[in-house]
Amino acid sequence: MKKEILRMERVTYKEEETTYLKDFELNVFSGEIVGLLPVNAYGLPQLLSVLRENPLLYAGYMYYKERLVNSWQAGKNYDKRIAVISDQTSLVEGQSVLTNIFILRQGFRQELIRKKLLKSQLQPFLDEIEVEIEADTLVEKLSSFERLVVELLRAVVADYRLIVMREIGTLVNEGELEKIHAFMKHYAKQGFSFLYISPHFEEILQICGRAVVMSNGKVIKALAGEQMQAQTLNFYSEEYNAKVRHHIESLKERQSNKIVFEGRHLCGDVIFNFNLKVAQGECVVIQSLEEGIFRDLYLLFQGEKQDEIHPGTCYLEGRATKICGDRGIAFIREEPTETMLFYDMSYMDNLCIAMDHRVKNIWGNRKMKRCIRADFEEILGENVFDKRMQELTEMEKYDLVYTRIMLQKPKIVFCVQPFKGADLRHRIHIWELQEKLLRKGIAVVILAVNMADALSLADRLVRIDKGTVVTEYQRKDFGMLPRNIPWKALYDENGRIP
Questions:
Q1: Among 19, 179, 255, 475, which is least packed by CB within 10 angstroms?
Q2: Buried b vs exposed e over 366-402: b needs ≥16 C-beta within 10 Å?
Q3: What is the pTM of this model?
Q4: What is the domain extent for residue 10?
């Protein structure tokens, strides 16, 4: 008989009279890996809060290891031992791997810390999954993959029987993700259970035995057995699939051989002698297969290494340039609605911030701002210009970021993991905004660790491994990519749409 680790029964949860979870139903058995596919992100942070922090429920019951731990009648203090692993680390910086796994865990009561003994206790856990990590390594020195492994080991050592993995596919490349999946399967055989949250169907199909689909704070469908097929899950993204197919089919109409950007002999701490050419209106995805490479590319294309000795030379439309300060080059950071907006400024000032090279005295030019508003009200909406920045929806924030870039009129835009942290609805919107850049003839370079949705826009894929080993795939070669890359199924072995 299966042992139930978690059961959420008709759970409704509110914060300040706003309902975030409505009649939420979920159960997870011992040794099971269950997928959770969020169609939108509404209620997802609150679900994690309910799992970890046990706030008082408005309605329903929650059981952990077949014991009631929370209900609408009264919150319980029973320790559920549920771990959440996501892009936000829960490890304590400034402390070692050993300290985080053993000494800082709940229930550690040794007054005299014997590090040699603890190291001998840690080593079998590392040997069991064939991972080499030094026990004395400070957590801030760990790669993303190593950090995920350490958090997983900490949960296992502390006997957290339910481990929530939230969107870890955006943090590591495909090879590392396969290793994480292998570790999860290994521990599932030992009775540990996993709730695997991902907006990508491919990931869920690779690792999960069954899945639930969540929308607007409610489970709208449960999938198991034969229902766990790609075509069943794709039902929830038919619009997205149609847009991507239309984009691929129309690429020939706007192909250009005009090179707008060239990087020659680019160097960093890890990268050496890397060369890149990008054509007008072309989408190039650069995938870093090693964390140091991603960091180097980020700094190079943001312009932070341009004053160092021999970082290489960049050319924009044939002229040598420095990326920082050249308004023909734009840069969109990770999660731009958090990192690229100024919340103490007005909507209009945020929109016009990159136009000062085109319009003199833009800050005091009210006539120009009225013209911009008139031109963009139909696209952005009439009401957004009068809203405070904090009142904007996530969609409106993305529109603001990308419209600002379009007003800048760059020749090329570097985007850092543009789909990271986005649910299905926002992924579609981000995809549309990037497609709009390409249709205007603006080249787009996507810096990625995991491919996510990037392949759905790509004309070319450049993969960089240790030692600056570069492997390049044209679209006709996309069918030869590893099977677990999202959107790879759109291409046959000749790069055509089946």
A1: 255
A2: eebbeebbeebeeebeeebbeeebeebeeebbbbbbb
A3: 0.84
A4: 4-237
